[in-house]
Amino acid sequence: MSPIDTTLLNLAIAVLFLPLAGFTLLIFFGKKIPRLDLVETGILFLSLAFSLYIMIEKIFILHLGTLDLTFRWIDIGAIVGHPGFVLDIGIAIDNITAIMLVVVTLISSLVHLFSFGYMRDDIRYIRYYAYLGFFSFSMLGIVLSNNILMMYVFWELVGISSYLLIGHWYEKKSASDAGKKAFIVNRVGDVGFFIGIMIVFTSLHTVLFSGIFKGIAAGQLSGPLLTAAGILIFCGAVGKSAQFPLHVWLPDAMEGPTPVSALIHAATMVAAGVYLVARVYPMLTGDALTVIAYIGAVTAFLAATIAITQNDIKKVLAYSTISQLGYMILGLGVGAFSAGFFHLVTHAAFKAGLFLGSGSVIYAMHHEQDMRRMGGLRRKMPITYWAFVIFSLSISGIPFTSGFLSKDSILGGALAYGMLSGNYIIPILGYGVVFLTAFYMFRLIIMTFHGEPRDHHKFEHAKESPAVMTIPLVVLAALSLFVFYTFNPFSPESSWVMKSVVKPESVVPAAQTRGWDNPVPVETASVPSTPNTLPQMGNQTRSVTYYGEALEESHYVGMGLSLTLAFLGILAAFVVYQWKKVDAEKLKQSVKPVYTFLLNKWYFDELYGATVVAGTVGVSKAFAWFDGHVIDGIVNGAAAFTRGASSLSGKFDHYVVDGLVNFSAWFTGLLGKGVRRVQTGKVQTYIVFALLGVLIIFFAFRQF
Amino acid sequence: MNLHVGLTDFLVVSAILFSLGIYGVVTRKNAIMVLMGIELILNSANLNFVAFTRFGLMNLTGQVIALFVIILAAAEAAILLAIVLNIHQQLDTVNVDEVDKLKN
Amino acid sequence: MNWYDIAFYAFAIVTVVSAVGVVFSRNILYAAFALLFTFFGIAALYVLLTADFIAITQILLYVGGILVLIIFGVMLTSRAFNVEVKRGLLKRIPAVLVVGAMAGTLIGVLTTTQWPSSNFSPYEDTARPIGALLMTQFVLPFELASVLLLVALIGAVIIARREKERGAQL
Amino acid sequence: MQYQFLGIGFLTWITFLPVLGMVVVLLIPRGNTTAMKWTALAATVLQLVFAVLIWINFNPSLSGINDASGFQFIEKTRWIDLQGVGWFGHVAVDYFLGIDGLSLPMVILTAIISFVGMIASWNINKAQKGYFALYLLLDTGMMGVFVALDMFLFYVFWELMLLPMYFLIGIWGGPRREYAAIKFFLYTLLGSVLILLVMLGLYFSVSVKDPTTGQMMHTFNMLDFMNAKNFDPNSLLGGLGTYWRYVAFIALFIGFAIKVPVFPFHTWLPDAHVEAPTAISVILAGVLLKMGTYGFLRISFPIFPDAMLKFAFPLAILGFINIVYGALCAMAQTDFKKMIAYSSISHMGVVLLGIAALNTQGVAGGVLQMFNHGIVTAMLFLVVGVIYDRAHTRDLSAFGGLANQMPVYTGVMTVAFFAAIGLPGLSEFVSEMLSYLGAFQSFQWVAIFSSIGIVLTAGYMLWALQRVFLGQLPDKWKGLPDVNGRELVAFVPLMVVVILLGIFPSIMLHPMNASLNHLVEFVQKAGSGLVATK
User: What is the total count of domains within chain D?
Assistant: First the structure.
């Protein structure tokens, strides 16, 4: 390992553990030392600096391969006839990791900064920062781990920090409920993830990604089990990335402080699911990928439809997040790997921005979250407004924004998928969501910032947020523009993210891949594999596939289609809400059943409440009753039976056995009455009898 | 020295004394008389011991035991007489048949 | 029959007759005096058995001690003379029968038993060996006996005295 | 015997130190409770010191299990030697102590829990003398079970621990203490009887050559039981895979299962836990439950490997039932302590699942889970004890919002709860993971269904956490003080262990390694009739 590798790995370890150190410091000394929040924020910025250094060194300057640091965590030896049990874990840095490090630390440090303002008066201010530090640590752990087990470990840790942060205002029942719900729903997904790990480990005896891919390539795990493993691991992503059908926790998670929503529930943690899928991508079979694509598409559509009816500003953004995560998953599922990951990066920036922006609004409106009571804030909060507009354009996929680049390439991929598979459901859903996204985002902007203020009292007091809150907005708004990614605003392929994050080559047996993911035979390939490609985890090389060719074909068609739909969506929003050409209320009335259905989030909460939750609680009550009455009843019954038997035997004892005894006593007494006369109480009489006895004995035993 | 009178003769005397002592103990009512019977019995036993010693069936131990018996008899007599005196003072009788307070 | 035999029979008769007197006498005082003769007779028999020390002890203790004690007792129990000393005939008959049977049995046994040869030379001197025995082999019983005597003495005094006091109090 | 102190072996010290303490406690005049407490505490602290010494001097490369030379700290002397006792013949019982990688974690666990329990007993205010004396006696019984290698001795310690427990629950317990104590006593006594029967069966089936006289004689030595060659061919338990061996295995299983407790023999546990005083609950859950699974591993598996292989699957199913059933029952409880009691059942199911898998990771996970669950559940009961001391109620719905009132307490409890949930970074995660991994390798579907327990555990634990700490603080709890120094002394070592083992499980896995591997290999081979011993 060269010195620079070691340096980068050490820096990565520092990046990982600095926030943990901050957490420890804050938890134990938070009350004794003042202003530790500054320390924590400083730590995060330091981590950001390190991460940037790592990324730049790795991707732009040195073009290093994967850096890996593995050590043995558990070693239970090997025994004859068994493979033994060894767990190696460690960290690794490849391009995805390097980019994610920057994304996480950047958003996290901006959120730290933003929270100075937003959380200023909070009663558990220091605790809040401590948890943020802990979250950053866990999230960086996910990013850095080179194995599926450590990923699971940190996966759970982000779950717990999410739980703690959602429940930050735990005095509110809804907040603590939401935290609990988030954790438990995530756990459901995690169980799948864990079973997936068990399958992988049991078959391959390693948890290292490199080992897993090697093992699968060697055919040690294949067939339905491999598909199952892929889908089960994806279950983890379904939980964490709030995909259908486990998406229900994310909207509730909005009970947490808004900066937390920005950091955890928009930019980083929820994207971990996407990251996970990207990590295990080479081992996903064609079937598994199709499942993933469908889940993503359904989620994207479902969430977008709900988003257009919500009135809570954060809820809209939450559903928007779910929808965008669906996009990413969809992208990965259809094979647009780089695009999906690219969207993760750009989404992190603009969605964090949206949440921070909404935080800024909420802060200005004194914790009012209902959009129906806002309006006209544009004049009062210009910075927030313009940042918000940029974010919205970006999420809607309007050119010159980062969102356009990434989203467009996902949609291109989806279209290519449709062309290759002949299955157009996924692209149709994907393009439908473009329209919906544009519509609900601009609906939000119009309701919040345009028009006349609806709550004058609050409006009067509203003012632009302080600099600590606007600076992050400005930074994120800048990052939502195309220039940071590529100089050609219409060519996502030219962005450095897409170039450095290359779709890894699948390791699954050829029969289980989608045919079009396989490389085009060399003689027909237009471009041979370039030698200076950037190696990734797994056995990945850049090569031309049928899929790549389809992508080329669909590119411009897809771009045109998505642009049209996005503009239509924005137009519709303006028509309905700005210019009021169509009465929104009448529209609602005309499609009331649909509207109600959407407003109630497709009744998922009710469905789960009535089935899973009620079922579990019911079963648990039933079991408790069973335990208390049947099993314990048997025990107590046995005791009662024993008592009964003992009482029976007691009666027997009393009447039969004792009867006999008493009879013999009575008989003896009768005898005694006769013999009693002998007992005169006079010694002399006794002597006579004794002598008599002696004589009798004597004569009885005499032998002569 | 060839004796006509031998061990058996002494033992017979002893047996007669013993029987008389028993008879006295059994038939007498007066506690003191009972005591006298006991003394007879003890003496008969002593006579046996000494006789056995004389005729070589026991060594000198027999005489020592006789000595102890005499001592015990003395002690016994002293105690018994004290009790009798006491009973006499308490119950105004020395009739063993009448000393039956514990019985009723 | 030699002098030894004559002496034996004489003393044996004295002893047995006086013993009969003890047992059958109606008068308690007579009985006491008869007991005196019995003791003397037994002492004489001891002499015949070459147990001189025991004989002396017998006279000293029984005659000088116990008998005097008995007579004192007789005297002190005031109505002793008037007491019906014997049981009724009905009660005596079983006693006579049993005791008679026993005496018969005993004598029968004694006479039929083949005792070992009586060629044993008697002890010339008994006082000294007995003393030696008492101080060696029997020292513990000896000491115990002395203690016993002391205890008996004190006990007798207490029993006789305490009740008297109580009687006085009443 | 190189490990001696004052000429007496370490294991004897560690086992009988509490008895020494008990004698001293009994000699202290009645009024002087302070002296009693400190004496008892000193005994447990010294015991802990010995445990640490043993741990330091433990050689992790030796295997043990059925191999006498693989045991460490051995002490062996003839204890009972009776010639011609009726038809028993020559009865000889050895005072045979020794530990291997299987018992080491349990010894350390017992020492830690005894110490912590002692601190939790500080506020006992009724008949202190009896309490501390019985407590120390209990301690000896527990420690003895884990170090005894002679089955007779094992049984003696096993029973020795029963009686103090009965009195400790029955006298110092809650309102229904008599019921709970008797229930506990009868249940465990039933188990003991079964163990006794099997023990006698083994005794009469096994003959070994007496090293001193050279003649064949019966023995109670566990290690001799494990060698198939020692069984008389025509005896009741001779041979492999016979009907009576299965019967004996099941009887032994029930005997130990009652202690674990395995469904459906578990109902003594909630009652006993709820009624017992805090320290006794801690001991009960922390150590006593482990005796059952320890018995499986130490006695059932190696002595009846054939039956073990046959019944491995039902065992795993029972583990699954324990996990899910326990978790569901826990969810329905409103009594804080009862909920934790049921959670113990659930967590012990994981142990069962792991050891039933009978592979390296499963058994290692199971044993580690025994240790970790001991620590974590001790914390949980202490947590309940703290709140019960203050509020005199354990009704979950009576609380709320304590997080602001008692922040340190909240932190402690959060760690304990998250450890119980199996949060990575805390100890139980590692052991549960290993158990599940092992189970998955052997019984794929059982492991998959059992993993429902992961969700359920999170469900009831978080629900409880929410009900106690989150939300609004009721007015009546406004005055509750936070944990005091004494309670922290009990909590902090446990927390340190929980976190340390979560991050570096090898600390505990390393010493167990050789023994558990050997156990797995031995049971697998001996059970299928291959080469029985080394």
Answer: 1
**Domain annotation covers residue B103:** no
Rg, C-alpha atoms of chain C: 21
Mind listing the pLDDT tens digit for each residue in D205-252?
888 877 777 777 788 888 888 887 778 777 777 777 788 888 888 998
Mean pLDDT of D85-93: 68
Interface A-B, measured as beta-carbon pairs within 8 A, has a size of: 15
Q: Pseudo-torsion of CA A526, A530, A534, A538, nearest 10°? A: 70
Contacts A184 to D, Cβ<8 Å: 455, 458-459, 462
Query: CA–CA separation, D329 vs D354, rounded Å?
Result: 22
The band of A84, judged by pLDDT with boundaries at 50, 70 and 90, is low
Selection from A385, A296, A402 nearest residue A350 by Cα: A402
Q: Which domain holds residue D372?
A: 311-503
How would you classify the pairing of strands D4-5 and A86-93? unpaired
Given a contact as 3+ CB pairs under 8 Å, which chains touch C?
Answer: A, B
Pairing type for strands D72-82 and D207-209 reads unpaired
Look up residue A336 and give its DSSP letter. Answer: -
Sign of CA dihedral A215, A220, A222, A224: negative
Per the listing, tokens 């009024």 go with D31
The full DSSP string for C74-100 is: HHHSGGGGGS--B--HHHHHHHHHHHH
With CA atoms as reference, report the closest residue to A148 among D125, D93, D437. Answer: D437
How many separate domains does chain B show? 1
D446 lies in a domain? yes
Contact between A351 and A317 (Cβ < 8 Å): yes
Contact residues, chain A, for C94 at CB < 8 Å? 688
Instruction: Report pLDDT digits (tens) over A592-604.
Output: 777 787 777 778 8
Query: Is C1-101 assigned to CATH 1.20.120.1200?
Result: yes
What are the two backbone dihedrals, phi and then psi, of residue A448, each rounded to the nearest 5 degrees?
-85, -45
- Which tens digits make up the pLDDT trace of D166-211? 888 888 887 888 888 888 888 888 888 888 988 888 888 888 877 7
Q: What angle do CA A78, A81, A82 make, to 5 degrees?
A: 45
3-state secondary structure of A243: coil
Across the interface, whether the CB atoms of A684 and B22 are under 8 A apart is answered no
Beta strands in D124-230 (DSSP E): 207-209, 216-218
Residues A550-562 have a mean pLDDT of 78
Residue D483 maps to a domain: yes
Residue C65: DSSP 8-state = I
Percentages helix, strand, coil for chain A, rounded to the nearest 5?
75, 5, 20
- Cis, bond preceding A245 (omega within 30 deg of 0): yes
**Predicted complex ipTM exceeds 0.90:** no
Q: Report residue D247 as tokens.
A: 């019967």
As a whole number, the mean pLDDT across chain A is 81
Contacts of A77 (CB under 8 A, 6+ apart): A84, A85, D360, D513, D514, D517
pLDDT at A534: 40
**Cβ contact A688–C94 (<8 Å):** yes
